[in-house]
């Protein structure tokens, strides 16, 4: 087991050397105000056997979870996904019959609200616009997941019980309750499972804890870095400086300074966006993405780079877009919504299917946004969407939750730029595979109203069911059968009248002919 703790301090945050003290036995943190990433890597033989069997059936598996709380994303942890649970998966070669076990494991780990049956029936196939991006997975899944309570219980029950340091395992699991994001990665090349939690800010009073040296010193290792961002020489680079140490090996933290090319960059705090659905939403709501002027400035990419503003929508099965409408090249339609083009779509896009007939989780949409000439006004982008017919309810209303999309600038990097060597790189986000491997992304910051989540709740009108009365569910079914049966009988009766009428006419003509002959 290898653990890497990265504490990232803002340039304006004061630092006192007594806040972090490394001894031969432990690292002591005292009231340290910093963002934090805690990454733990497990070998396959350190994983419970049931989970190990599921992982060995995967060529690669990537789980991304983001909280519904708004949070910052400082470099080098600038990448974002929509709130909820994202699963990106490629099965192993020649592996059959293990799809259902993956979904069963997801339910056990994250809760029964994860509506997954098997990758074949529940996942969607994302488009790959860049064939050079070899890391892209073959299928994708999403589910709303407000908290990690089920995962914490799963870890404490199934992982900590066999851990060499159960107390530390329980402590790390409980810390996930306040995490802003979580990544889980496995691939068949490294045969290692990596779990990474990220906290945008320290708890009240700062980080205060003792990080003891590993129990199994020969096989386990704990690396710690106290870092801060420095001005980089090149636009595509991120430069970090600070202190590094290995708990149990080093007796003091050592200074360091390094830089690396990065695909994901942050923007100033003023570069924000907000999302809303203007009322009345009805069955055809319009998503409005509002961008202040600070978000429309070209990002600090290399001067010869080509940049465009994009948004990536993750839409559950209850809501969808019309791909024929959004893929139009009609300049009047595009300009009326401040859209440039639909770049990619995947998943359920049937215009007529009700929600109960849709087996897959939903759809994803990559849209390029139009940008205005310099102006001081707010820029609004609108995306016309449609709600599926939902099952009846006693109130006549059902709720549909729509996570906020991510909004970012995508800029092409120079041909000679290499993006591979980055200790903090984050790939397989669902949308990054739709661009070339040397594309740089500049993330805008979601800015909801104070206390509001990064999810929009829509009220969907449905058929009303009453406990007493004609609109009770069973009565509707029986009435439907009765109406169809009566209609069928009426058609047969009308056909009988036509046949009888035509038969009588033939007999009359025959009698008339016999009379003339006589």
TrEMBL record:
Pathway: Glycolipid biosynthesis; glycosylphosphatidylinositol-anchor biosynthesis. InterPro entries: Pbn1 (IPR042322), PIG-X/PBN1 (IPR013233). It is a single-pass membrane protein; Single-pass type III membrane protein. The lineage of its organism: Eukaryota, Fungi, Dikarya, Ascomycota, Pezizomycotina. One of its GO terms (molecular function) is mannosyltransferase activity. It comes from the Eukaryota. It holds the Pfam family PIG-X. It comes from Aspergillus candidus. Keywords: Endoplasmic reticulum, Glycoprotein, GPI-anchor biosynthesis, Membrane, Transmembrane, Transmembrane helix. GO terms for cellular component: endoplasmic reticulum membrane; glycosylphosphatidylinositol-mannosyltransferase I complex. It is found in: Endoplasmic reticulum membrane. Its main location: endoplasmic reticulum. Belongs to the PIGX family. The keyword tRNA-binding does not apply. This is Protein PBN1. One of its GO terms (biological process) is GPI anchor biosynthetic process. Required for proper folding and/or the stability of a subset of proteins in the endoplasmic reticulum. Component of glycosylphosphatidylinositol-mannosyltransferase 1 which transfers the first of the 4 mannoses in the GPI-anchor precursors during GPI-anchor biosynthesis. Probably acts by stabilizing the mannosyltransferase GPI14.
